[in-house]
Design a protein that fits this description.
- By secondary structure, the protein is of the alpha+beta class.
- The protein folds into 2 domains: 3-24 and 72-153, PH-domain like (Roll); 28-68.
- Helix content is 37%, strand content 37%.
- It has 4 helices and 8 strands.
- The protein has helices at residues 3-8, 27-46, 52-71, 140-153; strands spanning 9-14, 17-23, 73-78, 82-88, 96-99, 103-113, 116-125, 130-137.
- The protein has a 5-stranded antiparallel beta sheet. Strands 6-7-8 form a 3-stranded antiparallel beta sheet.
- A hairpin with a 7-residue loop joins strand 4 (82-88) and strand 5 (96-99).
- Helix 2 runs antiparallel to helix 3.
- The protein is elongated and about 60 Å long.
């Protein structure tokens, strides 16, 4: 396993559950945010004459997002009955609980959103539908590792797919 995967993903076992903990922190992303945000604020205030209220509101949202990315971790709890995804300790969208019955395959794939690229772990059901479990891994190795661990824990075989 690649060292970058070990730095951001921890595995724990609790009774019959596998717990995968993924750290959101990325030094590159945080530094980029600290450099780009002040430049964007200056541009908004001086070039576009944005009212100060919106500038202050934007600053608070940016600060919350930076702190959230610094401290949050995604907890994926895989039991024989359910897979639960929780982002904590600070609020973030994307928490979910999925029943494991009917899961045929766990796989990773490239995710393109807006101007960013990330990698996600998806579930394919017996009915043929795809469910996004978590789609914000920085590297393909991280997504592949998590997909493999979930498949192994649930005893899912993909017949070489």
């Amino acid at each position: 396993m690649d060292e970058s995967v070990r730095k951001q993903i921890e595995l724990e076992w609790e009774s019959d559950s596998l717990i995968i903990i993924y750290s959101w922190f990325s030094l590159f992303q945080e530094l980029l945010g600290f450099i780009m945000f002040p430049a964007t604020i200056l541009l908004a205030v001086y070039a576009y004459k944005v009212p100060i209220f919106f500038v202050v509101l934007g600053c608070f949202i940016w600060l919350y997002m930076m702190i959230r990315d610094w401290v949050n971790k995604t907890h994926i709890v895989v039991s024989k009955l359910t897979i639960t995804v929780q982002h904590k300790p600070l609020f973030s969208f994307g928490n979910k609980k999925i029943k494991t019955r009917g899961i045929k395959r766990v796989y990773s794939k490239l995710v393109r959103a807006h101007r960013s690229i990330s990698f996600g772990v998806f579930l394919q059901t017996d009915a043929g539908s795809d469910i996004a479990l978590f789609d914000s891994f920085y590297t393909e190795a991280q997504a592949l590792y998590v997909a493999k661990e979930i498949e192994e824990h649930l005893n899912i075989t993909t017949n070489g797919e």
